[in-house]
Amino acid sequence: MQLRRAAPLVLALGVSACGAPTEPAAVATSPPATPTLSAEQARTLLADSWMARAGADDGALAALLDASGGDGWIALFHGDLRGADREFGVVPASDSARLGKARVHLERAAAYDAAAALCREAGIALFDWRDEHRETVRTGPLEPLLAAFLRGQDPPPGDDHSAIRALFAGDSSQLPDPWRARRAFVNGSGDAADAAAAQTAAPDVVDVLGRDDEAGVTFELPFDDPARLGALVRAELAAAVALAEPLGAAGGPIVAAASAFGGLDAPPTGDGGSIPAWLALFGAPQPDLDAWLHRWSRGAAGRSFGDRLPLDGWGQGTGSDDVDRILRMAAGLGTPLLAGLADEPGLAAELELPQLLVDGLLREQMNRVLGASPAQARRLGERSLDATPGSLGGSPDGGRAGVSHRNDRAFLLSLARVYWKAGQPDDAVRLVHPLTSDLPPLASVERPLAQLGAASTVGQRGETNQL
Predict the structure, then answer these.
(1) Containing H/E element for 341?
(2) I want to staple 224 with a disulfide (CB 3.0 to 4.6 A). Which of 87, 214, 333, 444 is the partner?
(3) Of the candidates 103, 111, 112, the residue with the CA atom closest to the CA atom of residue 72
C-alpha cells in the first residue's frame, strides 16, 4: 500500500518530519514472551480504517483540507476546537466545513458528558465527606437541601429556603440566577440569555458557611448542578446532527454517533454527499465505523478495536501483573500497526497514527479496569497520555492545557476521574483547571475536586477551619 503525496499533507497539517512512529515506552522488566501482532494481522484489522483509506486515497483527504474552511480540520486534528470553529465559520461555506463543525460539536459533547459524570460523583463525595466530619466543618444554611438534591433524595423537613424546596417539585422559577437561568436551559424552556448563562463559569449558588469578622474572611461552599452539563451535551449533539444530516452519507457517522450517544434513533442520512463517509472520522483514535459506533454508543453497538485484537491475554484481568502484561503488549504494537497501515511510513508515521491507535486501546483498558483498581487504571491512562502536547503543532493555548492530537478533552477529564478515584484529587484538578479557559462550564468539575483536595489535607496543613 503506497502512501502518495504524503509530504504536502504533512506540511498542511503543520507536522514536522520526524521519521519513525513514536512507540510507547518499554516496561523495565524481564517478562516471558509477549504475544504480538503480525503485520498481516494488522493489515486485516485496519483494512477499512480511515487511516488506511487516507493513505490509499490521500486525494480525498487533500480535498477535505483544501475546501473552504479546510484549515479547520487541521485545528481539529490538533484538538484546537476554538480554532476549528473559527475556521469552519458561523455558517460553513462548504460540505467539508459543515462536516468539520459537526465534529467540533461532537467533541464538545463528549467533554461535557465526561464532566457531568465527574461533577455529580465528586459533588456527592464532597457532601459525604462533610457529613462524616460534621464536628469539624462549618455547615451552611443551604447545605442539607443541596446535598439531598444532588443525591436524588427527598428534602429534609422544614419550610425554609422555599425557592430551593420548590426545585424538588420541579419548579425552578424562584431560584436565584444563574441557577434559575440554567435550569430553564436544562428544561428546554429558556431563552438565549438562559443558554448564555449555561456557558459561564460561575457556580449555580454559593452557600455561606460563616464569617470571621476580625480577619475579614467569608467561608463559602459553591454548589454546581450537574444537570446543566447534561443539557450542554444534548445541545451540542443536536447541533452536530443538524449540521451533518443534510450531508447524506458523508454525515452518516456523525449522525449515528450523536444519536447513539444521546440515546436517540438516528434519522436516515440518504446516499448523497461529495465526501467519503470515512473522512468524518479523520483524527479519531477509533479506526473504523464499527469502533466509532462502539465508542459513541458507550458499548451498546458496534465493536471496539481492542475486542478484535488477536492477542492472548489482552483485556483480561485487573491486577498489577495483568496490567504489566497489557502494557508489554502495547509497547510492541506500534511497528506492526504501522506496517498494517502502509507499505512505507510516510503520512501514517508523521501523524503518529499507530500511537493514536495504541492510545485508544490503552484507554479502553483504563475504563475497564477503573472499577476494580483505580491505581492500575491510572497506570494505563498515564501510559497513553501525551506528555509533550504541542510537539506536532497546534495552538499554544491547547498545548498549555494539555490538549493535543492525542489528548482530547474527554480523555483528560476521564483521566482526572481516575486520579480522583485513585486518591489524587489535586492531580485531577491540575488536569481540569487548564481546560476551563476554553470551556468555562468545566469549572463546575474543578470546584468539588478542589474542595476534596483541601479535605484530604485536613490535619496536615491546618485547613480544618476553612471547610
Answers:
(1) helix 334-341
(2) 444
(3) 103
| Statement: the pTM of the whole predicted model exceeds 0.85 | yes
Q: What is the pLDDT of residue 12?
A: 55
- Residue 464 pLDDT grade (very low, low, confident, very high; cuts 50, 70, 90): very low
Residues present in the chain in total: 467
Residue at grid coordinates 481492542: 306
Q: 332-342: string of b/e by CB count within 10 Å (b at 16+)? A: bbbbbbbbbbb
DSSP state, residue 94: S
Question: pLDDT value at position 342?
Answer: 83
Instruction: Give me the residue label for grid cell 467540533.
Output: 104
The full DSSP string for 6-46 is: HHHHHHHTT-----SPPPPPPPSS-PSPPP---HHHHHHHT
CB 342 within 8 A of CB 348: yes
pLDDT at position 213 is: 85
| Alpha carbon distance 424, 280 (integer Å) | 36
* Helix, strand, coil percentages for the chain (3-state, nearest 5): 60, 5, 40
pLDDT tens-digit readout, 128-172: 999 999 998 999 999 999 999 999 999 999 989 999 999 999 999
Whole-angstrom Cα distance, residue 328 to residue 323? 8
Nearest to 392 by CA among 74, 15, 76: 15
Q: Beta-carbon neighbour count of residue 264 at 10 Å?
A: 14
Strand partners of residue 221: 207
Assess whether pLDDT exceeds 90 at residue 7.
no
Exposure of 235 in the CB half-sphere (CA atoms within 13 A): 20
DSSP 207: E
* Integer Cα distance of 148 and 299 in angstroms: 31
- Model confidence at 3, pLDDT cuts 50, 70, 90, reads very low
CA dihedral 338, 415, 432, 224 (to 10 degrees): 140
Task: Give the Cα separation of 13 and 219 in Å (integer).
Answer: 49
Q: CA 342, CA 337: separation in Å to the nearest integer?
A: 9
Read off the pLDDT of residues 28-44 as tens digits, 9 standing for 90 and up.
Answer: 555 567 888 999 999 99
Rg (C-alpha) for the chain, rounded Å, is 24
User: 358-384: per-residue pLDDT in tens?
Assistant: 999 999 999 999 999 999 999 999 999
Q: What is the dihedral of CA 46, 49, 55, 60, to 10 degrees?
A: 160
The phi, psi pair for 222, rounded to 5°, reads -75, 145
Count H helices and E strands in the chain, helices first.
23, 2
Mean per-residue pLDDT, 315-338: 95
Q: Could you give the count of Cα atoms lying within 13 Å of 390 in the half-sphere of its Cβ?
A: 8
Angle, CA of 131, 136 and 141, to the nearest 5°: 60
All residues at 6 or more sequence positions from 320 whose CB lies less than 8 Å from its CB, including other chains: 376
Tell me the pLDDT tens digit for each residue of 421-436: 999 999 999 999 999 9
